[in-house]
Amino acid sequence: MGIFSFFSKEKKETLDKGLSKTKENVFSKLTRAIAGKSKVDDEVLDNLEEVLITSDVGVDTTLKIIERIEKRVARDKYVTTQELTTLLRDEIATLLTENNTEDAESFTVPEDKKPYVIMVVGVNGVGKTTTIGKLAYQFKKAGKNVYLGAADTFRAAAVEQLVIWSERVGVPIVKQKMGSDPASVAFDTLSSAKANGADVVIIDTAGRLHNKINLMNELTKIKNVMKKVIPDAPHEVLLVLDGSTGQNAFEQAKQFTAATEVNALAVTKLDGTAKGGVVIGISDHFRIPVKYIGLGEGMEDLQVFNKKEFVNSLFGE
Ligand SMILES: Nc1nc2c(ncn2[C@@H]2O[C@H](COP(=O)(O)OP(=O)(O)OP(=O)(O)O)[C@@H](O)[C@H]2O)c(=O)[nH]1
Ligand SMILES: [Mg+2]
């Protein structure tokens, strides 16, 4: 993190608004957890554990948080229930910064990889195509030449949906007809992007194939074909997870990361859900950084994930 915080007022407002349901949920539970209590004792800690688990933070991460709070309470002797939110905010923020993943500072890609190739993966409906559209918009806004590749050839409307985004954002797209070989689309996209001096290439992939093994084999095939054009591509395999599914998103991340190499995560649909606590569990559990969060369907509704900002928004006053 640099000395200056580039956390603009608008960004904070979008984040606060997007997380409002999760926040309401956590706070109403917290209020019940400490009702009639002035001091953080064992009973409050038990209730707190339940609050975190039922807020989709996940069991392992919850236990880590409770352990930290216990230590603080033991050390500071008397902690009032009023101080609990601040304590939670601090301990969760510290826990997340201890997991060795760095937050990105802005929408940017390494200058020395040209084009920088991002392959977007995830099960159907999680928000892959939408996230690609939003990313293309942000990269373009940052002055990058962006190319999109429509390698989800499985579903009829998939190519069309990405075409609409490419027009909305104003970036070129490489496509073939439905049912064609996704690896061939990826090959064409990278060739074209390379020939035209693109900075970033984003490849969409199918979320649903005949079965899971097929899907993983397909992803491997796409990757291998990419290497024929750019030997170290893809530079980033971005796994998109639907945050509104709570613990399901966590399970998907487990399964996907076990089956294929993933090096960045995006958690979408945090607006309109009370399950946003799942981001805390995912960020704590995986050694893969949560890079982006989706807070709506619009072009502007994607943010670079920042642990501290996220926890502050959730537990801030
Ligand atoms: N509210 C909200 N909706 C979102 C967000 N991201 C995506 N969506 C919506 O979720 C739905 C599915 O998004 P897609 O981008 O089509 O998902 P996909 O992963 O490409 O789906 P497949 O191509 O079927 O695998 C769409 O209606 C999107 O508008 C988000 O951050 N917030
Ligand atoms: Mg799609």
Automatic annotation (TrEMBL):
Subcellular location: Cell membrane; Cytoplasm
Residues that coordinate or bind GTP: 122-129, 204-208, 268-271
Domain of life: Bacteria
UniProt KW keywords: Cell cycle, Cell division, Cell membrane, Cytoplasm, GTP-binding, Hydrolase, Membrane, Nucleotide-binding, Receptor
Alphabetical list of SUPFAM superfamilies matching this protein: Domain of the SRP/SRP receptor G-proteins (SSF47364), P-loop containing nucleoside triphosphate hydrolases (SSF52540)
Any single biological process term in GO: cell division
Reaction(s) catalysed (UniProt annotation): GTP + H2O = GDP + phosphate + H(+)
GO-annotated cellular components: cytoplasm; plasma membrane
Membrane topology recorded in Swiss-Prot or TrEMBL: Peripheral membrane protein
Residues in SRP54-type proteins GTP-binding domain copies: 289-302
Family from the record: Belongs to the GTP-binding SRP family. FtsY subfamily.
Subunit structure: Part of the signal recognition particle protein translocation system, which is composed of SRP and FtsY.
Protein name per Swiss-Prot or TrEMBL: Signal recognition particle receptor FtsY
